[in-house]
Each structure stands twice: as C-alpha cells, then as structure tokens.
Design goal:
Mean pLDDT: 79
Shape: rod-shaped
Radius of gyration: 60 Å
Distance between the termini: 152 Å
Number of strands: 0
Strand content: under 5%
Low-confidence stretches: 1-9, 246-252
Order of helices and strands: HHHHH
Number of helices: 5
C-alpha cells in the first residue's frame, strides 16, 4: 500500500485517502484483466500437463494477490465513509462488490480447471507403474500445484517475518527520534542555564570591580586625611616653637608663652625657668 504522511489538513488527508483507494481500484482492474486473459488461455489452448499446472499455479498466485489488495480496499473504504461521506462510500462500495464477485468467479474457474487437469492425468496414467516421487515429470498436476502453494506459503511467511522486522525497526526509529528530541530540549535548557550563569558572573565581576574602585577611592581619601592631619599638627608645633621665626618691627623675636605644656621643653622656656630660679636663689641669699 502507498503510505501517506500524518500531517496536513483534513482536505489533504481526504485527497490522500482518495488517491490510495483509487490506486487499489486500478490495480484490481489490472489484475482482473490479466486473470481473464490467463483463464481463457487455459481453457482454449492445448498445453502439456506440467506447463498447464505451472500456469494454474501462477493464476492462483495472482488471485491471492487480488484478495490481498481487496482486503486493503475494504480498509480504505472505511476511511472513505469517515472522510468523504455516505455518497462516496456507496460509489466505492459498489466497485468493491464488483471486484469481490470477479475474484470469486476466478477462484471457481481455476478450481474447475485444476480438477479437470487432475482427471485428465488420472486417465492418462491409469494402469501405469509406480511413479518416482523425486521425479517432477511423474507428478500429478495437483501435486505440482500443492508444491507450488507450499513454496508460496513459505514465501508469504518469510515476507510476514520481514514485515515484522521492518515494523520493529520503524518502532525503534520512532523511539530514537523521540529520545533525540528530548535530549535536544535538555541541551537547549542546559545552554539557557549556562547563559544565565554567565550573565550572573559578568554582573558579579562588575560589582567586584566597583567595590575595588570604591576601596581605592577610600584609601586615597584616608591618605589625604592623614596627610592633612599631619600637616595641621606640624603647623601647630611649628607655630608653638616659633620655628618659622617671624620677627617684630624692632628686630626682636615674639615672646614665647611658656605656660603651655608644648613649650615647656623649648630652649627659651628652659632658660627663662633657670633665670627665674637663679633670681629666686639670689633673693633668698640677700634676705639671709
């Protein structure tokens, strides 16, 4: 049978179904004409028993092929009823009945020809000696036909096994396709997760750089503050010790305030304290 895809609209499925049943109808008509011609030849021509038996076996094979096609025709006929409606179904059903009638007629004609061949062989070999079963030339037409049918049945069984293997391979292929689709979806999801992680890493790196810049800025500010504090302290100390030596108009230095703790260790304050101590000592000696 001709296989069609599963996708498409309802109209597409209907057209595909119509093409299928039309194909089966045409094939049955071709086999019908072929069988009519072959059966006429068997009924008119004078043939040797062996050749006639082979011809009958070939005709039976074609009849079996017609029966198989007719079975598929009946299956497609159910689809016609679903897709095309009752009118189209009735039209194709009539054609199917005609094919079925022709197949039954051919079957009966072949059975009649086969029985006639067997009767002729029985008459021809009446009173003959024992036959050799290994010698095909001594076989009856029925035996030749039976052997041909046996070979045909074996071929049919082999074809059935092959069909099962093909169906199994198709099932495996379908399951593999589903597994591949699932793995593809998983890979897409994994890739999306990786992209998300990469974006988060980029944001984290940016945050770290911002923090590093802020730390550098804070360190710079801290250094500037320390330098400023040291400068202020230095200025205070220098001012207290008169390190810059700012003079008065008379050329004398400004007096140092020795009452401050920070100026107690200066030379001027020590000299002043020594002078005051010496003055007190002298004053104490005079009073004595």
């Amino acid at each position: 049978r001709v296989s069609h895809g599963l996708g498409g609209s309802g109209k597409g499925r209907g057209d595909a179904m119509s093409e299928e049943i039309q194909y089966l109808h045409d094939e049955l008509e071709g086999i019908t004409k072929e069988l009519e011609k072959s059966i006429k030849e068997l009924g008119k021509k004078k043939m040797k028993p062996d050749a006639k038996a082979e011809k009958i076996a070939a005709v039976q094979d074609r009849i079996q092929r017609a029966k198989d096609i007719y079975s598929n025709f009946r299956v497609e006929l159910r689809d016609v009823l679903k897709e095309k409606g009752r009118i189209a179904y009735t039209e194709w059903e009539e054609k199917g009945h005609a094919h079925h009638k022709s197949i039954n007629k051919f079957t009966k004609d072949v059975e009649t020809l086969q029985q006639k061949l067997e009767d002729e062989e029985e008459k021809a070999k009446a009173g003959g000696g024992p036959k050799d079963k290994k010698d095909v030339n001594t076989w009856k037409g029925s035996e030749i036909i039976a052997e041909a049918k046996k070979v045909q049945d074996q071929s049919g069984a082999s074809l059935a096994r092959t069909q099962k293997i093909v169906e199994s391979c198709e099932t495996i292929g379908t399951e593999t396709n589903i597994a591949l689709r699932n793995q593809t979806e998983q890979m897409k999801n994994t890739n999306a997760d990786i992209v998300g992680v990469d974006m988060r890493l980029n944001r984290a790196d940016k945050v770290i750089r911002d923090i590093a810049r802020r730390l550098a800025t804070d360190k710079l500010i801290l250094c500037l503050v320390i330098i400023l504090i040291v400068a202020i302290v230095g200025v205070i100390v220098a001012s207290s010790t008169n390190a810059f030596g700012s003079g008065s108009e008379g050329g004398e230095d400004d007096p140092i305030d020795c009452s401050l703790d920070i100026t107690q260790t200066t030379r001027e304050c020590r000299a002043k304290r020594e002078a005051e101590a010496q003055a007190r000592a002298e004053a104490a000696g005079v009073s004595v």
